[in-house]
Amino acid sequence: xxxxxxxxxxxxxxxxxxxxxxxxxxxxxxxxxxxxxxxxxxxxxxxxxxxxxxxxxxxxxxxxxxxxxxxxxxxxxxxxxxxxxxxxxxxxxxxxxxxxxxxxxxxxxxxxxxxxxxxxxxxxxxxxxxxxxxxxxxxxxxxxxxxxxxxxxxxxxxxxxxxxxxxxxxxxxxxxxxxxxxxxxxxxxxxxxxxxxxxxxxxxxxxxxxxxxxxxxxxxxxxxxxxxxxxxxxxxxxxxxxxxxxxxxxxxxxxxxxxxxxxxxxxxxxxxxxxxxxxxxxxxxxxxxxxxxxxxxxxxxxxxxxxxxxxxxxxxxxxxxxxxxxxxxxxxxxxxxxxxxxxxxxxxxxxxxxxxxxxxxxxxxxxxxxxxxxxxxxxxxxxxxxxxxxxxxxxxxxxxxxxxxxxxxxxxxxxxxxxxxxxxxxxxxxxxxxxxxxxxxxxxxxxxxxxxxxxxxxxxxxxxxxxxxxxxxxxxxxxxxxxxxxxxxxxxxxxxxxxxxxxxxxxxxxxxxxxxxxxxxxxxxxxxxxxxxxxxxxxxxxxxxxxxxxxxxxxxxxxxxxxxxxxxxxxxxxxxxxxxxxxxxxxxxxxxxxxxxxxxxxxxxxxxxxxxxxxxxxxxxxxxxxxxxxxxxxxxxxxxxxxxxxxxxxxxxxxxxxxxxxxxxxxxxxxxxxxxxxxxxxxxxxxxxxxxxxxxxxxxxxxxxxxxxxxxxxxxxxxxxxxxxxxxxxxxxxxxxxxxxxxxxxxxxxxxxxxxxxxxxxxxxxxxxxxxxxxxxxxxxxxxxxxxxxxxxxxx
Length: 796
Hints:
Elements: H1 15-36, H2 43-46, E1 61-69, E2 78-87, E3 93-106, H3 109-117, E4 128-129, E5 135-141, E6 146-154, E7 164-175, E8 183-194, E9 203-211, E10 217-221, E11 229-231, H4 235-240, H5 245-253, E12 259-262, H6 264-273, E13 278-280, E14 286-288, H7 292-306, E15 311-313, H8 321-328, H9 334-343, H10 345-353, E16 361-362, H11 371-379, E17 384-388, E18 403-405, E19 411-415, H12 417-420, H13 430-448, E20 456-459, H14 467-482, E21 486-488, H15 491-496, H16 515-519, H17 524-541, H18 548-561, H19 570-588, E22 591-593, E23 599-601, E24 605-614, E25 620-629, E26 635-637, E27 642-649, E28 654-663, E29 667-677, E30 682-693, H20 698-731, H21 733-736, H22 753-765
Parallel strand pairs: 9-12, 9-20, 9-21, 11-13, 12-15, 16-17, 17-19, 23-30
Antiparallel strand pairs: 1-2, 2-6, 3-4, 3-5, 3-7, 7-8, 10-11, 13-14, 18-19, 22-24, 24-28, 25-27, 25-29, 26-28, 29-30
Helix pairs in contact: 3-13, 5-7, 5-14, 6-7, 6-10, 8-11, 8-17, 9-18, 13-14, 17-18, 17-19, 18-19
């Protein structure tokens, strides 16, 4: 974008500055002539030691600029530059001194980038040294020791000319024993924006302030009525704790003119932490979460920070639009997840933050777009896409406004790449942060001076800035707001700004999409696994009496599976998806058939019970249990080969379902029990068991009947014999004298040994009672009145 700058209307340098520079050149001429007459190599050089000529690249002394205040000075200010110098050579540096040098005005935005890349190159353009007392001297710099410095100089002494960005160099010069003359040993270049008066036309700047995190919740919840959420770790608590990344984003962004860009998943996760929650420990157990007050404090501070400010909400979980466009659109159901992630935004954000969010914007990873990404981005209702200038490039000598139509009623809001990227990388060191701030301000002012027309510019930093990056962003933005060339603007207003007719409106083809970004995308296998999990959920939810207890947490978990935060974390993404699917499988298995062993049937018909177990906390219904005989010629279920019965089981209970069977032949028959949903889809694993049929045949019945008849006849004969014997005893011996007597114990003797024992025992038990000849003698022994021994059967 805009490599050349147009500085129409800028003022010329004052005559005093021209005279001083001319004098410096004249004074340096004799010295230059003397240097040209020096021999080609000194003894030290010949010995392989340091060369008197300045080597290319960084010098032997590192110069770090830790602070530059004010970042954008105006008339009457005093500029203070502080930092350290470190001797990285092997020899001590003597007679060292730190000086400030002001270079010429930087004319183009691309020149700023070039100077930033070579900020410590001692062979580059040095600029004019600020003479006088504005220096700091060091008698000796010991190798490896960092020495601090601080130089303050009135801005008037810098001899700055017209409005623009000037190169400011901090140099370290000195001598070594091998080269005992004063020479440049180290430099650090930075930029000094100079706009002392209010600009006639200010640049309208939109700065996106993202509140995005990784996924900290899965789908697991407690079995209680409140469904206590289970967090995968306590990393979110660390981020919102004092000094944490998200705590810094809120505290630093409060009071700045930014557009807050939030992921509803982050808000929902912190909101869940304000109540009872559990945390999954490393050993697989859960422990109570203890950061409720911390979560409440962070949300309260965020609510205060966004009050009256523009809040742009991403779809729930911040889905990766590029991955979805390139690898997911051909997988059934993938786009429906994006729509669901968009549909829940309003309720989530407005309920928690008490502000109405703007849901018109889609933000692909790093603003890289192609036609398929734009199509996916707008499929869920967004009509504006946040792109970036290095993706939607312009071939102009200036930077156009951010908004531009790209067809189909869609507006691309193109973020400025040169202002969006300075805050990347490691900014934990103060020197790196200071350079990033000054580079950002330099790009902003140079952009504003390109034309006399007002333009709207958007800054889109990385999604999850570190603490150091966030602090640098806040410092730069505060300096920008305190400057005289820019004013804050909401993202919605930037999107409505009049497009520049010369700006590029053609979305680049997929063939030029950055390779490094494509390598980080979620693969097709990820979307296939998400679709498989969704299919299992669809089959499961139809049997539930309270579907929301399962559908909602799993739906949000699948939104998180598509998150942009998984870029560069492929192994962690696979583990997260596997955990979600495994957890769902475990819940589905909570409703199942109990295994059965072999069942025996004796007779032509019988009932077979099959038990359905429900280990869920809620009831299940709309299930059919089908029992099928694999050998219906031997064993029928009902009137056919199978029978179905409806099943409804309360939570935490089991239910036995009985099926009527009929046997036609003896032997084994395989039977299969299977649960089905009402639409005929199998649910869970089948249970297979054998039924052993032992049918009672007519021959066996005849044998049993004959034996029973013989027992009846034998009993009747014994009864008649005893009656006759009793009659003879009553008639006396005289009546039986003439009758033939059978030998004792013969088969015809009515008083056998067993009968006599029985009669004697009976007579003893009835001692003293009048004998009744007509009463039959008892056929069992008298029961004992003594207590039963161990193992003895007692009649009840």
